[in-house]
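call fold(seq) -> tokens
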Amino acid sequence: MDEWSSSDLSPGKMWNMLKSSDPQIDEQFYRLPDGRWDVNRLNEGVARLQKQEELRLKQEHENYILMQNQKELARAERTYHKKIQRKEQSKFVDLTVFKVGMHMYLWPVMCQLFLLIVMLILPTSTLISSLPIFLIIIVSLNVIFWVSIPLMTKNLADQILKIDNRTKHLLENQP
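ret:
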């Protein structure tokens, strides 16, 4: 009993640990010629198991840290690409809303001219009976006409602001 009293584990428990880690292990290697356990070899075997377990845990921890770093790097890269993409989009002058507004501005005028010509060609009796319809159409076209103006000016102002921001550094460098 004095042989293993310095260890926390009994020789039987140490052997069970070694046997569970490697079922092919030779029991005679850990026995003395008289049949008792060789506590030094058992301690070495348990120490080797513990060292392997520590290495495995250390490797798992390193893999976890590496995976976290890779995730962080990927997240930073995505953020960087989104920032670059937003910066590029902010430089692009987009006049599609202005073009739609321009169509909304011109088409009602042309439709009203056409309607005026139709009203002049119609006989007076038909014109008088159709006048409420013509007035509703004219008012609707005028609403579209007046809505297009703020739409165009707002979009145009936004696009000019983009151009100003792109060229601001050029004006700052001049003496």
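The radius of gyration is 44 Å.
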